[in-house]
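I am still learning, so can you show me any protein sequence you like together with the matching structure tokens, please?
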Amino acid sequence: MTVVALIVTYNRLQLLQECIQSIRLQSSRVSQIVVVNNSSTDGTTEWLQLQPDVLMVLQPNGGGSAGFHRGIKEAVALNPDWIWVMDDDTIPSQRALAALTSVLGKLEDKPFTTGFLSSKVVWTDGAQHNKNTTPFLSKEALGIDGVRAIRSGTFVSLLLSTAAVRKVGLPLKDFFIWYDDVEFTERITKNGFKGFLVEESIVTHKTPDNLVNTIYSDDKKAAWKYFYGTRNYLYLRKQKKGAFIYYAYVLKNFFYVPLLLLNKRKNARWHFIKILWKGTLASLTFQPQKELLPGQETR
């Protein structure tokens, strides 16, 4: 079984160094480390050029979504069995990969094909990470302790089947940030693959905090993210629930949510309302293009 590790980075050299070192120290080794560098300006490029065991892919900054799109495409070209996908602030424990591959061995005789496995994500204090929760499906009779079926996963330690990528195509690079991993992993499970959370595979997600940030409470400096979050979420609503539900969300965002923002936010109320409206308007014409691999049929 061959595994390629894929990391997407932008201007977080210290975290990237820690992430790569934790991969090097895994009890189960990877065959290659691929780093997509979204044109970092903090010395990341120069440092990566000195790492003989790292394949750097340098590209313009199109956000995390474009990074994972390009990285998974490059990783598939190396022809591994599995691609271990993560952000640069993901720090795997020493047995994180071994725990994932061990479960794969236990799933080989099951009457389904595994599309991805997700690690248990904790914060720096060891508590469950609130930004990386996964939607559980009803329990399946797997007979494997600590393994739960999930509908989707995040790009914070996702062991991804190359066969699944070859069937469903690549993540949507036009999302820029937010919901690209949800759309991609749900596309995998909708195409007949299974996804599981492996609780013995533990990674630390070194975000600045472990809060559940929302448009009602987040700092003003993070407001720009809600343009993409709003637009991408509405796109997914349209795809999953149809036009009627989608336009109901559009009306809600124009009339009801602004009232909540005026009531709940303590500052920057109109700034967030304008971001919400811009993201909602952008969703009306947003049509991200799905890119398939050579030889794939349109899905």
